[in-house]
From TrEMBL:
Protein name: Aconitase/3-isopropylmalate dehydratase large subunit alpha/beta/alpha domain-containing protein
Membrane-traversing stretches: none
Superkingdom as given in the UniProt entry: Bacteria
Pfam families given in the database record: Aconitase
InterPro entries with a match to the protein in the record: Acnase/IPM_dHydase_lsu_aba_1/3 (IPR015931), Acoase/IPM_deHydtase_lsu_aba (IPR001030), Aconitase_4Fe-4S_dom (IPR036008)
UniProt GO molecular function: iron-sulfur cluster binding; metal ion binding
Domain Aconitase/3-isopropylmalate dehydratase large subunit alpha/beta/alpha per the UniProt entry, residue ranges: 3-74
Keywords, sorted A to Z: Iron, Iron-sulfur, Metal-binding
Length: 85
């Protein structure tokens, strides 16, 4: 049996480890146009704009995918702004 995924969905929880592993091996993301990243698990559910994330580690986790996805050419869907309080 051959299994092929034509679209890969990643999130802010597990993608940092994947990017670190690729960097350690000197490899690039294969087929970045077939990757889609979302910041979804860490987003506050209140209606305040911009989204306020009070915990510094959580803020970093929410902002980290933007850097990784930009340098890899991956589409990222995330809230427009995160602010620490």
């Amino acid at each position: 049996m051959l299994l092929y995924a034509d679209l890969h969905l990643m999130n802010e929880y597990t993608s940092p480890q994947a990017f670190s592993a690729l960097d350690a091996r000197g490899r690039a993301v294969r087929r970045p146009r077939q990757q889609l990243a979302v910041v979804s698990h860490i987003i506050p559910t209140h209606a305040q704009t911009p989204r306020v994330i009070r915990d510094a580690a959580s803020l970093l986790q929410a902002q980290n995918p933007a850097h990784n996805c930009e340098r890899a050419g991956i589409r990222l869907f995330a809230a427009r702004a995160f602010v620490a309080v």
